[in-house]
Amino acid sequence: MSSALLSILPEVVLTVTGVLIMLIDPFFAPTASKKALGWLAVLGTLGAAGATLLQLRSHQILVTFSGSIQMDTYSVFFHLLIASSVLLTLLVSLDYFKPGVTSHSGEYFALVLFGSVGMMLMTCSVELLMVFIGLEISSISTYILAGYRKGQATASESSLKYFLLGSFATAFFLYGIALAFGATGTTSLTGIASGLSITAFPTMAFLALAMMLVGLGFKVSAAPFHVWTPDVYQGAPAPVVGLMSTAPKAAVFAVLLRITATTYSSELLHARWVLLIGIISVLSMTIGNLGALLQKDAKRMLAYSSIAHAGYLMVAYTALPADSIAAAAFYTAGYAAMNVGAFAVISQLGGYDEPLRTIDDYRGLAQKHPVLAAALAFFLLSLVGIPFTGGFFGKFYVFNAAIGAGHIWLAVLGLLNSGVACFYYLRLLTALYSRQLGEESAEFEGSSPAAVLAIAGAVLATLLLGIVPGKVLGLAQRGATVQVSRNR
Amino acid sequence: MNELVDTIMHLALFLIFGGLAVLAALNLLLQRHPINSALSLVVVMMSLAVLYWSLGAEFLAAAQIIVYSGAVMVLFVFVIMLLNAGEEERTKGSKIASIAGFPGAAAIFCLLSFVFLSEGHKLGLSHLGGSLDEATSNISQISSLLFTDLLLPFEVTSILILVAILGAVVLAKKER
Predict the structure, then answer these.
(1) Residue A120 belongs to what domain range?
(2) Dihedral of the alpha carbons of A407, A408, A410, A415, in degrees to the nearest 10
(3) CB–CB of B152 and A104 under 8 A?
(4) Domains in chain A, number
(5) Mapping DSSP to helix (H, G, I), strand (E, B) and coil, where does residue A213 land?
(6) Which residues of B73-106 are buried (b: 16+ CB within 10 A; e: fewer)?
(7) How sure is the predictor about A1, in pLDDT bands with cuts at 50, 70 and 90?
(8) Which residue in chain B is spatially nearest to A65 when comparing CA positions?
(9) Contacts of A159 in chain B (CB under 8 A)
(10) DSSP B173
């Protein structure tokens, strides 16, 4: 196999599957169940994961397409992460669209696959133009997916808000790329890294990086660029929220890590960059947690919690190099496992119309659906950061890295915020296990076997990350070493 | 003598279209009626295209006219006309936009001008009426770059367009 093909094999597999789904879709009757297409999408995702493992086995760093793509352990790590969360989301969505509810569930699966092509391209490209196109593919797919429940006003609001603010953010990112080109004469990250240390335009270079940070900050919903998050999460279908709060964010964090790693080659920029990211992470943690305290709607609460988690994650970015890259990568994995899981349970309990909204609606759910409630409780505990869950080690490594770099104030603020976060997660948890029953309006149709498989997978992943984190951390560390050595 | 006329002509072009761009941009912000704002934006785009052309970036000038003035603005105007709904189109401007928007825009303008002015002498100046590279036209340079170094981004753009088409179909199709 040619090295060029090998370096983008997972993306090729996903694209081909997506196109196949679009071609087969017209042969189904409009009211027929499109579950078979969903299974095809699952197969395609498994194929992409297999292709990624093939890349890992080749044990080499491939730089292909005139330096736009770099296949290394780092990209493999994020490819696997994205493939797993897409896989779980697909399994949850298989029975989400009942036949007759919507006539475009075939396109749903194609859009998810195309979106993940964009995300995967972001994590393996070292050329900012390529990153930009990947970012756009992933964003546009998620804008559409957010508005998939077309009859509902909140869905249209969600899609439109996400689209307008997201496009605004993209413009910032693009302006950042243009200024970076102005300052260093190249859009390749390797070129920028070497150009930054000798550039005659330090102010412009810093402005370029700041603008890229604004654009990417929007996409990961870091404060003060977070305003869209609660409304979008509230209106989007629950499986889609599970996807868009994990996989695209992981891809953006991967890009941000690559960009951050390029900045510390420049002494002058490094100090300012650390300050900027420190401020953003403190703001995200505080606003996210305080906002979540005030929420009554469960999905809005999890939206604010995702803002807070973006904050925790960015603490690691202030503490480069190698150890904290691994810490941040590990955190994205842990967060993906528990958050996809939490939204999988919510989509099972709520179904398409989502009659369960407020935390009061979840009251006494454990008596009716003990297994689902237990799974949700486990994910909530992981989001709090209780030991033996992925959330604990994620926080542990991140704060450890911050302390190691001497940013003790950041670690202290992060821990204080985790304390505040306990309140609202535990409020939902106690509601689940209260004796008094809530007014659960809709009858529960029984969870689908595929979704149960997905929830079980998410529980297993969260548990394994919390008990034996070594394997994933090892892979993350190998990826981090590649990043560090490249910029020396 | 000829050179002097050339310089004066280019300077005149720059002043006319630069001024026009600024005025139209201000008009875009101040107009209350969306159609007036959209048409001002067309003027901004066209003036910018002339400026690009006078700096020697012919390709950018042509792309600017075809893509922005041609495609994007026609779409804007169509959407505004389709959504035409009597009084609703006259906005009084939201509170937040006037409180945070104007200072924000001013701040970004100041920041960018500061950066370009402070580093301008090191960036060097391009001269009006010149071309970016005397030897080859920038169209051939761009196209060779597009099909060699930037081949993958160019190809992957097709997925981007496919996703956009798919989205348009999904969002516009009637539920059965």
Answers:
(1) 3-486
(2) 150
(3) no
(4) 1
(5) helix
(6) beebbeeeeeeeeeeeeeeeeeeeeeeeeeeeee
(7) confident
(8) B152
(9) 171
(10) S
* Cβ atoms of residues B45 and B69 within 8 Å: yes
Distance CA B166, CA B130 (A): 44
Closest CA to A457 of A75, A161, A88, A174: A88
Task: Say yes or no to pLDDT of B167 above 70.
Answer: yes
Q: Which residues of B touch A103 (CB under 8 A)?
A: 173, 175-176
pLDDT tens digit sequence for B5-31: 878 888 888 899 999 999 999 998 888
Residue A134, classified by CB atoms within 10 Å of its CB into exposed (0-12), middle (13-18) or buried (19+), is buried
* Rounded (5°) CA angle A463-A466-A470: 120
Q: Which residues contact A160 (CB under 8 A, 6 or more apart)?
A: A147
E-assigned strand segments in A202-244: none
- Residues 39 through 58 of chain A touching chain B, CB cutoff 8 Å: none
* pLDDT at B97 exceeding the cut of 60: yes
* Structure confidence by residue, pLDDT tens digits, A68-119: 999 989 999 999 999 999 999 999 998 888 776 777 888 999 999 999 999 9
Task: Give one DSSP letter per residue of A10-37, joined into a string.
Answer: HHHHHHHHHHHHHHHGGGS-TTS--HHH
Q: Write out the DSSP string of A139-163.
A: HHHHHHHHT-STT-HHHHHHHHHHH
A63: β partners: A70
Q: Which strand (E) or helix (H) includes residue B168?
A: helix B151-172
- Amino acid identity of residue B63, one-letter, is A
Closest CA to A141 of A96, A82, A188: A82
Residue matched to tokens 């560390």: A477
Intra-chain end-to-end CA distance of chain A, in Å: 31
Taking the CA of residue B156 and the nearest CA in chain A, the distance in Å comes to 7
The model's pLDDT over A308-321, given as tens digits with 9 standing for 90+, comes to 999 999 998 887 76
* CB contact A107 to B (< 8 Å): yes
CB atoms closer than 10 angstroms to residue A323:
18
Residue type, A358: T
- Residue B94's identity, in one-letter code, is S
What's the whole-number mean pLDDT along residues A389-402? 90
Work out the mean pLDDT of chain A and round it to a whole number.
88
Q: Where are the alpha helices (DSSP H) in A72-188?
A: 73-93, 105-124, 128-146, 153-184
Instruction: Measure B152 CA to nearest chain A CA, in Å.
Output: 6
> Of residues A331 and A360, which shows the higher confidence score?
A331
Helix H or strand E segment including A64: strand A62-64
Q: C-alpha A419: how far from its chain's center?
A: 23
| Tokens of residue A20, six digits | 């196949």
DSSP string, A270-309: HHHHHHHHHHHHHHHHHHHHHHHHT--BHHHHHHHHHHHH
CB-nearest partner of B153 from A68, A118, A203: A68
Q: How many helices (H) and strands (E) does chain B have?
A: 9, 0
Q: Would you say A374 and A366 are in contact if contact means Cβ atoms under 8 Å apart?
A: yes
B163 contacts on A by Cβ (under 8 Å): 111, 114-115, 118, 137, 140-141, 144
In chain B, the percentage of residues whose pLDDT exceeds 90 is: 24
Residue A202 token pair: 């330090």
Q: Which residues of A touch B107 (CB under 8 A)?
A: none
For A87-112, letters b (16+ CB in 10 Å) and e give bbbbbbbbbbbeeeebbbbbbbbbbb
d(CA A258, CA A279): 20
- The pairing of beta strand A62-64 with beta strand A69-71: antiparallel
